[in-house]
User: Fold this.
Amino acid sequence: MVERMTGQQRLVLAVAILGSFVSFLDGTVVNVALPAIARELGGGLSTQQWTVDAYLVTLGALILVAGAASDAYGRVLVLRIGLIGFGITSLAVAAAPTIEILIAARALQGASGAFLVPSSLALITSTMREPVRSRAIGLWTASTTGAMVVGPLVGGLIVDYSSWRLVFVINVLPIGLALWMLARLHLTDQRRPDARIDWIGAALCVLGLGLTVFALIELPAGGPPGPLWTMLVVGILSLGGFVWRQRTASTPLLPLTLFRSSTFASGNLATFFIYAALSLNGFVLAVYLQQGAGLSATLAGLASLPTTIMMILLSSRAGVLAGRFGPRLFMTVGPIVMAIGSLLLLTVAESFDYWWQVLPAMTVFGLGLAITVSPLTAAILGAVDADRAGIASAVNNAVSRIAGLLAIAAIATITGGALDLAGFHRAALVTAALLAVGGIVSALGIRNTRDE
Assistant:
């Protein structure tokens, strides 16, 4: 007999999905709005990169702080703070009169978003046990990852039939609903009395990511090489200092002991390659289909619909099967299938035809994504104790966002400085290579429970 969720567990799942949904949706819905933002506020490829990466810099850097805060002060409190902050900053982005103010508001929005994902996922892992937990994670993953792939469609419709500014206003409704549901939860916040926040480590992480990404974006754009190379070196050294700090701090943001588990370490390494590929593919596809193939924002968004459908149909089922048979097979096969889908994008030509050049690629890509994401999340969280769920989910989400951050920052280098057809093909090849490496890492490092 299949164990069913209680009413409170269903409410926890709904809150977790809504809380994460807005963060994931905002991370991708903006891609299809980039050409419209550039037309109204100005800027070229580098400002388009910054519109995405300003959000990802603060999100990736502070998500570890949010994970520690979730353990120290309680998941419900941290989630509530994140929801309120995200709603306010979303409205600020929508009202931005200049590209500089928009980029600054996006950075603040990313800081608020950092508090959403780890606390919402930790609510699931701390209130549910197997097999209900695997099923809930499958549903959470399907919904939140579905937000990543449906974002371009939603954004395209809004951009074409209204204004790109409403792309950010739509966050308010799910945030309000999540706050209302959160008030109905009969849940005592779990806190670890020994949890502390390593502010020095947080500063090194923010400095390292910020300087590194700034240099990666501005160097190909023709910025002054001397200062930019200095920034890159200082950024890399700061990231090294962050890792050293985590070895010596009494309460590290990134507990390196977590990586003693082969599954946790390999799962996060696979996450890095897979989510770098996802971010690269999402950005390049949304922008090229409009600026290169001449599609409207809506049609560019519709290009990802097959991926969305595959996620909705298969992701939850993949999570259940991974709970039964172990995640290694799924995490190996899924990225390889996604890589094949990416290679199919090499058929895109000057004489553009969506039905033969893009639809097959997106369908195969979606199949691989559905096979991958739920087992990946379940494997990583299942590799740690339940009381470390907050920091474990924070680490995994930080890895995924930092991977996307660096991939977007490197787009000019990958494409040769222009998103023309040749640049699009180069991006497809790099995406496929990243996904293949993710599958290989999973095959070599992931351990099924029965193997340990």
Remarks:
- The mean pLDDT is 84.
- Residues 7-41 form the longest helix (35 residues).
